[in-house]
Design brief:
The protein has 69 residues and is an all-alpha fold. The longest helix is centred in the C-terminal third of the chain and has 26 residues. It starts with a helix and ends with a helix.
Length: 69
């Protein structure tokens, strides 16, 4: 939760960039693919990153409410 949003977004771009993302390069080598399996610049990719960014906050909000009641 303490990681700035821009740093979080840039780290996911470095991992899932279609041309040189680390995860995409590894999967292309292992599975012998021509195209990258993930594209962070699509709507699904942006929703994934935003969902992962907001997940800890939502969890702590729900967990705290559960403890109080």
């Amino acid at each position: 939760m303490m990681i700035p949003h821009i740093l979080f977004a840039v780290s996911w771009v470095l991992l899932l960039n279609p041309s040189n993302g680390l995860i995409n390069l590894v999967l292309k080598e292992i599975l012998h693919l021509q195209d990258s399996p993930f594209n962070i610049y699509t709507l699904v990719g942006m929703i994934l990153v935003e969902g992962l960014l907001d997940l800890p906050i939502a969890y702590l909000t729900i967990a705290r409410r559960h403890v109080l009641f």
